Amino acid sequence: MALKKIIVYLRMMRPANIVTSVADILAGIAISGILNSGFSVPWLSILLLAASTACLYGGGIVFNDVFDAELDKIERPERAIPSGLISLQQATIFGTFLLFGGIVFAALNSLTSGILAFLVAVFALLYNKLSKHHSFLGPFNMGLCRGFNLLLGLSIVPEMLYSHYYLAVIPVIYIFSITMTSRGEVHGGQAKNLYVAAFLYALVICAIAYFAYVNGRLLWSLLFLVPFTFMIFRPLLKAIHQPIGKNIGAAVKAGVISLILMDAAWAVTFDALIVAFAIAALLPVSLWLSKLFAVT
Q1: What is the pLDDT along the chain (296 residues), one digit of tens a residue?
Q2: Where are the domains of the chain?
Q3: What is the Cα 56 distance to its own chain's centre?
Q4: Assign residue 293 a region: left if phi > 0, alpha if psi is -120 to 50, beta otherwise?
Q5: What homologous superfamily is domain 13-285 in, according to CATH?
Q6: Residue 165, SS3?
Q7: Burial of 133 (0-12, 13-18, 19+ CB in 10 A)
Q8: What are the TM regions of this chain, as residue ranges (predicted)?
C-alpha cells in the first residue's frame, strides 16, 4: 500500500518534467563559467540547486492538480485527486512541503539562490491560482518560472546574474509558446495559435544560434540545435495540419522534454562541452520516465 501511494505522489510530480528542470539548472551553471574557472567542481552547490529545482517543479505541478481538482473531475477524472487516490488536503500538504523544501535547498547554497527559488514558488502559485486561464498572462507567468529557474542555476556565481540575466528571456519565450499550445490539449485548438508557437520556436532557435556564433561555438551548438529543432517541429507541424487534442498533446510533450536539448545547446554555447553532453544524457532518462508517468 505504501509503495502504491509513493507511485501516486511521483505521478503527481511529473518526473519526466523534473528532469528537464534539472537540465535548466545545469545550463545555468554552465553559463556561469564556474566549471571552466580552474577551481574544484562545487558539487555540493550543484546538488543543492538540483534538489531545489526538483522540489520547486514538483510542488508547482502538485498545486496545479490542487487548484484544478474540480475541473479535473470533468476533464481528467483519472488524476490522483478526482479519482480519490489522494485527498485534496494530502496533496496541498505535499505541494507545500515540496515548495518549502525547494526554497530551503536553494537558500543553503546562497541568499541569492534562495530569493530566486522563492520567486519560482510564488510565480508557480500565481499561475495555478490566478493566471492559468488568461490567454497572455498564463503563458507569460509560466515562462517566468522557467526563466527564474535558469537564473537559479546561474546563481551558483551570483555576480554572473548582473551580466547574463537577459538570457532568461529565451526560456520565457519558449515556455510561453508551449503553454499557449497546451490550451488545446483537451478539446483541440486553433491552428492560429500553433503558427504563433512555430514562429516563437524559430525565434528561440535563432537566438541561441546567434549567441553560439558570437562565442565561436556555432558548429558545436548545431549538434544539439538540429535535433532540438526536429524534435519540437515534427509534432507541432502535425498539430498545425490537424489541431486535435491528441496531436496538440504530443506537441506539448515534445516541447517540454526537448528543453533538455535546448539546455545542452546553452551549455556548449558557453564552452562547457562536457556539461552539454551530460545534459543531453538526461534526454533518454526523461523519455523513459515519460512512458511511465504523464508529462501533461
Answers
A1: 577 888 889 999 999 999 999 999 999 999 999 988 777 889 999 999 999 999 999 999 999 999 998 888 888 888 889 888 899 999 999 999 999 999 999 999 999 999 999 999 999 999 999 998 888 999 999 999 999 999 999 999 999 999 999 999 999 999 999 998 887 665 556 778 899 999 999 999 999 999 999 999 999 999 999 999 999 999 999 999 998 888 898 999 999 999 999 999 999 999 999 999 999 999 999 999 999 888 87
A2: 13-285
A3: 11
A4: beta
A5: UbiA prenyltransferase (1.10.357.140)
A6: helix
A7: exposed
A8: 12-35, 41-63, 84-105, 111-128, 140-157, 163-182, 194-213, 219-237, 249-268, 274-294
Question: What are the grid coordinates assigned to 54, written together?
Answer: 526538483
Can you spell out the DSSP letters for 51-113?
HHHHHHHHHHHHHHHHHTHHHHHHH-TTSTTTTTSS-HHHHHHHHHHHHHHHHHHHHHH-HHH
Q: Which residues contact 266 (CB under 8 A, 6 or more apart)?
A: 27, 30, 31, 167, 208
C-alpha cell at 88: 485534496
